[in-house]
Amino acid sequence: MKNRSAFLAHLKSLAEAKEDSITKCVAKEAFNCEESVETWFEDLPEYGCKSGMVPFLVYYDDTKAFFMKYYEEILEIKDAYEYELGEQMKLDYQLANHLAWFAFEYTASKIYTFYQAHSESLFFEIED
Questions:
Q1: Is residue 28 assigned to a domain?
Q2: pLDDT over 70 for what percent of the chain?
């Protein structure tokens, strides 16, 4: 993958951001994974948070706490997604659980998709 070093540096800056956000959570979790960062970003859309890939979003009490902590940001992400989609999301009875997973997975997808789409034009190669 081109510009991997630049992507990792950018991801590190997101993980070390002063402002607490879902983006920061995603970046920190990507660095804490056992496999490569790229593999983690590629596996998350396939298996999702419900698979246990994100240890702090496994149990309902944890997803509810995440939902409450990032409530405003989650609603902004949901609204933006619905606008892109052109329709409302269909959610079942575990609203906090599903929206916490959705916001985390969607944010991860945006980070990795942005990197893949713009790696050559926006990132420069950093010498190791």
A1: yes
A2: 90
**Contact status, residue 3 vs residue 124, Cβ threshold 8 Å:** yes
Domain with 91 in it: 4-116
User: Is 57 contained in some domain?
Assistant: yes
% of the chain exceeding 90 in pLDDT: 70
Cβ pair 73, 103 in contact under 8 A = yes
Structure tokens at 51: 């698979």
Backbone angles phi, psi at 62, to 5 degrees: -70, -45
pLDDT of residue 120: 58
The candidate with the shortest Cα–Cα distance to 79, out of 89, 66, 69, is 89
Question: Into how many domains does the chain fold?
Answer: 1
